[in-house]
Amino acid sequence: MVEYDFDENPSSSLSSSNKIPLIVVIATVVTLASLLISSFVVYNNEVSYLNDVINYKVFDTYGFVFGVMITGICYTILLIPFVGYYLIAKKQLIDHNMFHLFQLIGDKVMFGLLATAAGASLGATVELQKVTFIEGTAGAKMHSYFALMYVPNAFLVVGLVSSLISSILSSLNFNKSE
């Protein structure tokens, strides 16, 4: 008769709890990469129109969106050492309830800011795309400027989704620490 060891732990490759640190790292890296690409495009997108340079600073909405992206980049860079340690050691670097609360609130605030920025940016781009500018090359340049603003919007939505994943996992992590 075959004897079974019922106290044996399941294989580490099959355990879902061992996949969580990898998912956290992937979500953090995707958030950072998408915010970097999005902010790079917004910062470098400019066009000359009626002897003036039009860029994100001219429109308050795009200025707000750029500020949110820079805030998101800073927050995500702050978390990289912690998620890296979590991936390697399979435990939190700072395993204190207040740190988990800080991470939970930070993730929720960043998710809310990114959602607001994504909605505002997409709404402004759609509405400004409808504006009639002076006919000719100047008007075409403005429409190409706003057409290019869809690229950072797409990357901002990707960052928003990965921030949502990170926010959900920080909620689960906070529940475990209580």
Which SSEs are present, and which pair or pack?
Layout: H1 20-44, E1 47-49, E2 52-54, H2 60-89, H3 97-129, H4 137-148, H5 150-177
Antiparallel strand pairs: 1-2
Helix pairs in contact: 1-2, 1-5, 2-3, 3-5
Mean pLDDT: 86
- The end-to-end span amounts to 44 Å
| Number of distinct helices | 5
* C-alpha Rg (nearest Å): 22 Å
Query: What's the helix-strand series?
Result: HEEHHHH
Outline the low-pLDDT stretches.
Answer: 10-14
Task: Identify the overall geometry.
Answer: elongated
Strand-residue proportion: under 5%
Percent of residues in helices: over 70%
Helix/strand/pairing class, anyone?
mainly alpha
**Major beta sheet summary:** 2 strands, antiparallel
Structure summary, number of beta strands: 2
* Widest beta sheet: strand line-up: 1-2
What are the key terms here?
2 strands; mainly alpha; 5 helices
If you had to describe this structure to a student in words, what would you say it looks like?
- The protein has helices spanning about 20-45, 60-90, 95-130, 135-150, 150-175, and strands at about 45-50, 50-55.
- The chain is mainly α.
- It has a two-stranded antiparallel ribbon with strand order 1-2.
- The longest helix has about 35 residues, at about 95-130.
